[in-house]
């Protein structure tokens, strides 16, 4: 599949992008190369290839789901300017 410069110009117009004729020809050539590569990939033999969720066959290291930090809520709220019902009160920033 090849892309013509006129098609690139039309897409640029619809996207409200300024593009010279020279730029349109360059983009058309680049897009044509990309489409040719995709067509080449489409013909690759993939029978027997297992689909992968990730390109690296690695396992995630998991940590234990346990609390490791002490609860300092009362200490932090004791130095806060305003607290009500266990929540921090802050000044209104949006009118």
Can you describe this structure?
- With 95 residues, the protein is mainly alpha-helical.
- Helices cover 40% and strands 4% of the residues.
- The protein contains 3 helices and 2 strands.
- The protein has helices spanning 5-14, 21-42, 73-78, and strands spanning 83-84, 87-88.
- It has a two-stranded antiparallel ribbon with strand order 1-2.
- The longest helix is centred in the N-terminal third of the chain and has 22 residues, at 21-42.
- The mean pLDDT is 91.
Helix-strand layout with pairing:
Blueprint: H1 5-14, H2 21-42, H3 73-78, E1 83-84, E2 87-88
Antiparallel strand pairs: 1-2
Helix pairs in contact: 1-2
Please state the overall shape, judged from the principal axes of the Cα atoms.
flat
User: Low-confidence stretches at least 5 residues in length (pLDDT < 50)?
Assistant: none
Structural class computed from helices and strand pairing:
mainly alpha
Assembly context of the chains: single chain
Strand content: under 5%
Could you give the distance between the termini? 55 Å
Strand sequence of the main sheet, in spatial order? 1-2
SS field, number of helical segments: 3
The helix/strand series, from N terminus to C terminus, equals HHHEE
Helical amount: 40-55%
**Sheet bearing the most strands, described?**
2 strands, antiparallel
Q: What is Rg?
A: 29 Å
Number of DSSP E strands: 2
Mean pLDDT: 91
């Amino acid at each position: 599949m090849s892309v013509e410069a006129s098609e690139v110009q039309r897409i640029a117009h619809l996207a409200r992008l300024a593009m010279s004729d020279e730029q349109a020809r360059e983009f058309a050539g680049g897009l044509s190369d990309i489409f040719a590569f995709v067509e080449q990939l489409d013909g690759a033999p993939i029978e027997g290839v297992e689909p992968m969720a990730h390109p690296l066959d690695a396992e995630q290291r998991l940590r234990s789901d346990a609390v490791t930090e002490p609860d300092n809520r009362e200490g932090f709220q004791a130095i806060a300017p305003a607290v009500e019902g266990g929540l921090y009160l802050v000044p209104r920033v949006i009118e």
